[in-house]
Amino acid sequence: MPEKNRLTLFVLLSAATLTVMTGAIISPVQNLIRDGLGIDAAYAGLIITTHGLFMAIFSPFMGSLIDRKGVRVPFIAGLYLFGIAGGSGLLINSYWPLITSRAVMGIALSGIFTCINVIILNTYEGERRDKVMGWRGSAQSLGGIIWPPLGGLLGDMSWHLPFSIYLFAIPLGITAYTAIKNPVTYDRKNFQPEEDISIFTITKNSPVILIIFGLVFFSSFQLYAIVIHIPQLLELFGVTSSLKISSYIVSMATAAGLMSLIYGKIRVRLSYHAISTVGVLMWVIVFYIISIARSQLTIMISVFFLGASQGMIMPTVMAWIGEVVPASFRGRFSSYLGTFGFMGQFLSPILLAPALIHFGIRNVFTASSIVGLVWFIILLPGLGKKNKNRHPF
Fold this sequence. Notes:
This protein is mainly alpha-helical. It has 16 helices and no strands. Helix 6 packs antiparallel against helix 13 and helix 9 runs antiparallel to helix 13.
């Protein structure tokens, strides 16, 4: 691989860690932020997820911009803005300014997330694309291994210090200035003008797109059911150290990374549909076990397998969308993955709040298990279809 291509891949994979970094860094210190700001648990959860709402809102705009103008400027600007907004938490001492900074991070992340997907889809093809998508998933998971313990360690000194980690995005933006161009690999002769095709038409002709969007929404929903509520569950077992809490997030990220690393080999043997169905079945089992767990070890193992499901599903939806939409619409449809995914993050604590308030922390995980069961029922009929090696379904 040419040196320049290696640098580009390095920047893409490094930037991929930011998507998990956003919430994972401060998840271990969620209880400390809650106490430091004098707010209740529900408000503390919104500090972790507010970026998801703004990422969801701004993603379609970013996708349209990328399809028309290219990835370079939104990607580099997004990295700078992410670093500045995230790092500002070092100096913030009240709730609403902190929420505002998280909102700005979400806007920046909407450009970063979509650009990474479009660059990969437009630069690589076939098995190489699946492999790079898997590497992207592994990079995100590596971020989940590195950043939470570092955030937990710094958080034991001050709840402000973990916000310094977000400054990593600034030197990454400087590197991206050299490494990132505007790759376009599809054949312009086969380009269909936008007036002859619409997003509605594409979705109507490929209804599996709705399945993909649903999967990315609920995958993020389930991920943040863990990120937000595991610290509260662990309090029942006397676990309050932010560093120890971070070890559970690391367990999940490690499994996701390992699964994503071998994703290319899995994809050669299984269809996107089959991979997704197995991942969703793991949701059902894992969340039910957590809901009845009586030991920290049981929770740790369960969280590990939830991470494995994430490592299967997320590369799947990102590659799958690239195969079922025209290349000239990849920016927009990739941005909708961001919209649905980060909306799932934002809505997770809100939609699970009734279970938490009325039935207690354990039943939050019961509710998540039921969500998995519904999705398994939706996906199960498709397993009867004959699998073709490179067929998108």
